Amino acid sequence: MLRSHTCGQLRKSDIGTEVTLCGWVESKRDHGGAVFIDLRDRYGLTQVVLGPPEANPELIAEASKVPAESVILIKGKVADRLEGKTNDKLETGDIEVRCHHYEILNACTTPPFTPGQSDLPGEDLRLKYRFLDLRRSEMQEALVRRSQIIKKMRDYFAERDFIDVETPILGRSTPEGARDYLVPSRVHAGHFYALPQSPQLYKQILMVAGFDRYVQVAKCFRDEDLRADRQPEFTQLDLEMSFVDCDDIIGMIDGLVAETAKEVLGKDIQLPLPRMTYDEAMRRFGHDAPDLRFDMEIVDVTPVAKKTEFRVFRGTADAGNFVRGMRVPGGAKQYSRRQIDVLTEFVKEFGAKGLAWFRVEDDGSLFSPIAKNFDEAHLAEIKELLAGTPGDLLVFLADTWETTCKGLYALRKRFGAEMKLYDADALNCSWITEFPMFDKDEETGNWHAMHHPFTAPLAEDLPKLESDPAGCRAQAYDLVINGSEAGGGTIRIHDSEIQSKVFGLLGIDEKTAEDRFGFLLNALRFGAPPHGGIALGVDRWVMLFAGLENIREVIAFPKTQKASDLMTDAPGEVDAAQLTELHLKTVKTKS
RNA sequence: GGCGCGGUAGCUCAAUUGGUUAGAGCCCCGGACUGUCGAUCCGGAGGUUGCGGGUUCGAGUCCCGUCCGCGUCGCCA
Q1: Which nucleotide is closest to A89, CA to C1'?
Q2: Residues A303-312: tens digit of each pLDDT
Q3: Any binding-site annotation on A538?
Q4: Is residue A234 helix, strand or coil?
Q5: Which domains does chain A have, with CATH numbers?
Q6: d(CA A528, CA A546)
Q7: Residue A231, annotated as binding a ligand
Q8: Distance B38 C1' – A559 CA (angstroms)
């Protein structure tokens, strides 16, 4: 090592020691006769002083010219700081190093921004100069936390007899699911590999092979549009177990959640984590990943709507649709008429036609531009159903079940954030269970697997598999942290006959199934143990555990919304020769 | 693909209703300075207002197109 200590290491007890430090010049304060340099590495910041008598005038003059963010090596003696000159903001603030030897290991060209500056530059610039951005303490902390969490996961499963097995990155395209990233084959003209959306099939095969407990930190790829919590390339903690049911997997992850929260955040999590069925989640919160850090539940007032004269409510109810609403405690003051107009526009983004609202007045009466359409008794009933108290805002959507779910879920999320209804430090973890096996594509009328086509139905719903697909529930479970899907898994079908039936329902004919999943169907005939597993979103875990709101903040080299890497300029063009070799030709598409 | 926000000096931002030579702080360059820690003081440089077109006597500002970044809907088994 070039250095004897790190920049975060030295304390009063080291005074008098001769040390060698290496690091980056965070800042420099030049007084002519003496120069102060804050030297930084990932461990901290140490003040280096170049002044007489240790440093000669030439050395001081040279140091005064060193550009910010240069990498230097200094030798000197640890010294006590003068009375009243200590710096409480630094761990090393009680000492300084009096430098007698100084060399530039690599001078920094003028950087577009510095890690220490108070104004964070635009994100495109941060991504282009990621090596500078990653010098920022926030980024370093996030990646350290990521490393801790992954280590915790690996240790936890290793202690429980899981075997880490790597599965291929070059696989084959699957007919269902997200859009694949494809890799052309040079050897097989016109054939393509697909990058894995998850190691799903391989881990099931590993169970058939008798590995019993498998785990992997797996890179996954999905060519879909990005979001604040979504990257095209992301990391899953993927695992699979044999001879298990839902409770076994959930219990295993419960333990991981509690241990991780304890070790990484010092937080105690009560086990078992609460569970809620999918139906209940949709009914109470309108979404399968509800944010349970705060209350505020959806209330169905359709029965009252049916009795009223208000056309919008009555018509919706009579058509078999729903009128559902929420109580916003104290919302009457928070939201003016004008702001309610904004909310109305907001719910339209989710397909709602409008937003009905009532204000609970001081005398307990309901005020609303639509109130005149209601009998007193019906108003009273609505107020009672929502437990409205003076100062509350009551909001309603009258629409299909799906639209009321979407709109009210979005509103609830917005109210939660705008009215600060939850503790920003809270870590709320829970399970959503009993997902439907299938959902229907409204355009084509086709059934889709809600999770994936290998998901086992609940045993009690097995008879309904073909007669009532919509009512058939799956042995599926999602881990939800602070309203974000942090993981999901299922018990798999381990019987080739049931698997074929499910493929049939999904419109995957025998030939396609044989073509794409023949190896799995085949394996299921060779002594397949009952098995199931789960995949945890590592990036999201880190984001949630770090209290961050963007997945790019926990990924060293993330991609932009258009899936490009601003640092390397990927994706890029390739030589014509490369294309020829891969039997590819590019075509221009009209845009 | 749709909707919304943004793009002005290296960086962060400002610029009245469309009106003089587009400003400030930081950074950078030169100078002064032995106790700073956002050092200070003096001086200086730095602009295709993302790009292209249009309206106008006149456009950073208005209009159209386009590129890029962000958020979101669709999408994401």
Answers
A1: B37
A2: 999 999 999 9
A3: yes
A4: strand
A5: 12-106 (2.40.50.140), 140-276+430-554 (3.30.930.10), 294-421 (3.30.1360.30)
A6: 40
A7: yes
A8: 33
Q: Write a three-state SS string for A133-199.
A: HCCCHHHHHHHHHHHHHHHHHHHHHHCCCCEECCCCCCECCCCCCCCCCEEECCCCCCCEEECCCCC
DSSP conformation letters of A534-584: EEEEHHHHHHHHTT-S-GGGG-SS---TTS-BTTTTBS----HHHHHHTT-
**Dihedral, A389, A392, A395, A401 alpha carbons, nearest 10:** -50
Q: What is the DSSP letter of A255?
A: H
Tokens of A444: 């084509």
Distances in Å between the alpha carbon of A472 and those of A27, A450, A462, A463, A479? 64, 11, 7, 9, 21
Is residue A345's beta carbon less than 7 angstroms from any atom in nucleic acid strand B?
no
- pTM higher than 0.90 for the full model? yes
Q: What is the pLDDT of residue A591?
A: 42
Residue that has been written with the tokens 């390397």 in this structure: A568
Residues 70-89 of A with CB under 7 A from strand B: 81-82, 85-87, 89
Q: Match 């430098």 to its residue by tokens.
A: A99
CB A49 within 7 Å, strand B: yes
Alpha helices in A364-478 (DSSP H): 376-385, 401-418, 464-467
Query: ∠A504-A509-A510 over CA atoms, to 5°?
Result: 100
- The reply to whether A179 has its C-beta less than 7 Å from any atom of strand B is yes
Q: How far apart are CA A146 and CA A279, in angstroms?
A: 34
Chain B: positions less than 7 Å from a protein CB are 1-2, 10-13, 25-29, 32-40, 67-77
Residue A276 and residue A250 in contact, taking contact as beta carbons nearer than 8 Å: no
Q: Give pLDDT < 50 ranges for chain A.
A: 591
Backbone angles phi, psi at A568, to 5 degrees: -95, -10
For strand B, is any atom closer than 7 Å to the CB of A222?
A: yes
Instruction: Say yes or no: Cβ of A120 under 7 A from any atom of strand B.
Output: yes
Report the C-alpha gap between A267 and A261 in whole angstroms: 5
| Closest of A108, A99, A7, A22 to residue A65, by C-alpha | A108
Q: Which residues contact A201 (CB under 8 A, 6 or more apart)?
A: A171, A174, A454, A517, A519, A520
Instruction: Provide ipTM, 2 decimals.
Output: 0.94
Q: So what's the pLDDT on residue A507?
A: 87
Q: Which of residues 477-536 of A touch strand B (CB under 7 A)?
A: none
pLDDT per position as a tens digit, A318-375: 999 999 999 999 999 889 888 898 899 899 989 999 999 999 999 999 999 999 999 9
> Which tokens belong to A140?
């370093």
A527 is in an annotated binding site: no
Q: How many helices (H) and strands (E) does chain A have?
A: 18, 22
Statement: the CB of A198 is under 7 Å from strand B? yes
Which is nearest to A517 in space by CA: A530, A504, A536? A504
Residue A222 annotated as binding? yes
Cα A481–chain centre separation: 9
* Distance in angstroms (rounded) separating the CA atoms of residues A277 and A251: 16
